[in-house]
């Protein structure tokens, strides 16, 4: 195995690798290859930490790093970093190659003076590379209640004392949301690859309608595109034939959804009032694709 810096000649091969590695893993289809494609021209991208792993000259792994920040409780911004996507070819997964690539990159990052990494991932894997729940360092995730021990939000102090007991809130860099910010650009880019079948599968992250927040658990729950294909971003009550079924503001959508609080309470350990449900939605809806700014 050989680990080296990515070169321009590798770009398309690495994007194909990333697409293959993430397809239908966390959601129907994937976005990670487009994030990578656009990130190389992002000022937050760190080319000195853009590595590929080769097996007999074939690229079988890749990882990239980005600058990030944490907003401290006093409102000041504190420099941190993140990484990902980290991709391993499907034929090489669960054989230790991902951990070897990550440990190599983390050592290089530490030598560059990178003191703190925050990321989203599975702790059962990333604990082997030194990561733990970010809440243990008093780093909160922007999309979860402040008091939560968010199981997928992880952090590691690469340089001892760098964080030094501070407290603050982390939000992923805007570059990771590029597909949501430019859906037409993503669709045009995706069309340059061989077609793959998207599907809802067991083990994926929970999928929610990006307009009303309804859980999407079956293809039958989902809306449709203009060509009749399944749209996995929106439910059938919000989106059909390539357009939204209701023209409304986020506030109006929340008022609309609040009338179903009794139905929601059937699956809640503690029933919520209509006002409590609306308050929860005001924390959740700004992160949905239709309302995200």
What does this 3D model show about the protein?
With 293 residues, the protein is an alpha+beta fold. It has 2 domains: 2-177, Aminopeptidase (3-Layer(aba) Sandwich), CATH 3.40.630.30; 206-287, no CATH class. It contains 9 helices and 13 strands. The protein has helices spanning 11-22, 32-39, 97-111, 123-126, 178-181, 183-190, 250-258, 261-265, 274-284, and strands at 2-5, 51-55, 58-72, 77-88, 116-120, 132-133, 139-141, 153-157, 168-170, 222-224, 230-235, 239-240, 243-244. Helix 1 runs antiparallel to helix 2 (32-39) and helix 7 (250-258) packs antiparallel against helix 9. The chain starts with a strand and ends in a 9-residue tail after the last helix.
């Amino acid at each position: 195995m050989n680990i080296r810096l990515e070169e321009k000649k590798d770009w398309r091969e690495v994007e194909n690798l990333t697409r293959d590695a993430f397809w239908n893993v966390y959601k129907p289809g994937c976005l990670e290859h487009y994030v990578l494609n656009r990130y190389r021209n992002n000022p937050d991208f760190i080319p000195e930490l853009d590595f590929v792993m080769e097996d007999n000259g074939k690229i079988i792994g890749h990882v990239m790093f980005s600058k990030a920040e944490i907003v401290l409780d006093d409102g000041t911004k504190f420099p941190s970093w993140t990484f990902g996507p980290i991709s391993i070819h499907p034929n090489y997964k669960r054989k230790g190659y991902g951990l070897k690539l990550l440990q190599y990159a983390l050592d290089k990052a530490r030598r560059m003076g990178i003191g703190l990494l925050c990321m989203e991932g599975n702790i059962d894997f990333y604990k082997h590379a030194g990561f733990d729940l970010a809440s243990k360092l008093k780093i909160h995730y922007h999309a979860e209640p402040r008091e939560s021990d968010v199981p997928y939000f992880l952090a590691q102090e690469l340089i001892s004392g760098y964080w030094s007991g501070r407290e603050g809130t982390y939000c992923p860099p805007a570059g990771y949301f590029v597909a949501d910010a430019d859906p037409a650009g993503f669709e045009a880019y995706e069309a340059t690859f061989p077609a793959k079948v998207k599907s809802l599968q067991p083990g994926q992250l929970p999928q929610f309608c990006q307009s009303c927040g309804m859980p999407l658990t079956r293809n039958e729950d989902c809306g449709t595109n203009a060509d009749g294909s399944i749209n996995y971003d929106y439910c059938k009550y919000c989106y059909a034939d390539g357009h939204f079924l209701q023209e409304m503001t986020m506030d109006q959508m929340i008022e609309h959804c609040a009338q179903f609080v009794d139905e929601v309470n059937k699956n809640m350990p503690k029933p919520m009032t209509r006002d409590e449900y609306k308050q929860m939605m005001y924390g959740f809806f700004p992160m949905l694709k239709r309302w995200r700014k």
